[in-house]
């Protein structure tokens, strides 16, 4: 009977070893991918919290330099995007929230118009089209390197978005 109480522990240990051997840390990273510093607890109090003093306002990080257009695709200035596109671009910068469930999902680049990257590099976002009853054809596709592209013909063509101009 004593051997049966060890069996669950042995199986759990084998499962962990198999996970590390076959899934690697990449699998474990995927499980914790959504964790943000705000979502995790910390034993260090915020500045001023222990002394009762108000915390100093945090200054936002300076904007990252806009990536260069190395795609060879034509450019569109951010200011030339439709108003809905500029709003979606601001939502992307803020991390959401997004209007459609399909937004912030992996874009496969099956058309091979955008520069080739590993799967998961590109994410797509819907740019609403006034008067359309569905998502319409307009999208912004954002790369993990900060590069962003606009299509108004459902991936038939793309333009590199020159941000800040």
From TrEMBL:
Chain positions covered by the region annotation Disordered: 37-79
E.C. no: 4.6.1.24
Oxidoreductase keyword on record: no
Entry-linked Pfam families: Ribonuclease (PF00545)
Compositionally biased tracts (Low complexity): 39-56
Enzyme superclass (EC): lyase
Family matches, as InterPro entries: N1-like, Ribonuclease/ribotoxin
Gene Ontology molecular function: any one: RNA binding
Keywords on record: Hydrolase, Lyase, Nuclease
Name this protein carries in UniProt: Ribonuclease T1
Species lineage: Bacteria, Bacillati, Actinomycetota, Actinomycetes, Micrococcales
């Amino acid at each position: 009977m004593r051997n049966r109480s060890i069996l669950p522990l042995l199986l759990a240990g084998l499962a962990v070893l198999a996970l590390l051997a076959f899934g690697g840390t990449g699998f474990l990273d995927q499980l914790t991918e959504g964790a943000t510093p705000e979502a995790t607890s910390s034993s260090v109090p915020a500045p001023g919290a222990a002394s009762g003093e108000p915390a100093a306002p945090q200054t936002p990080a300076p904007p990252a330099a806009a990536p260069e257009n190395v795609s060879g695709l034509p450019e569109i200035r951010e200011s030339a995007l439709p108003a809905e596109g500029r709003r979606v671009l601001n939502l992307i910068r803020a991390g959401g929230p997004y209007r459609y469930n399909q937004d912030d999902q992996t874009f496969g680049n099956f058309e091979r118009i955008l520069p080739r990257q590993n799967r998961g590099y590109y994410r797509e976002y819907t740019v609403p089209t006034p008067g359309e009853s569905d998502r319409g054809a307009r999208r912004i596709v954002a790369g993990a390197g900060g590069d962003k592209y606009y299509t108004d013909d459902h991936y038939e063509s793309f333009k590199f978005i020159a941000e800040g101009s």
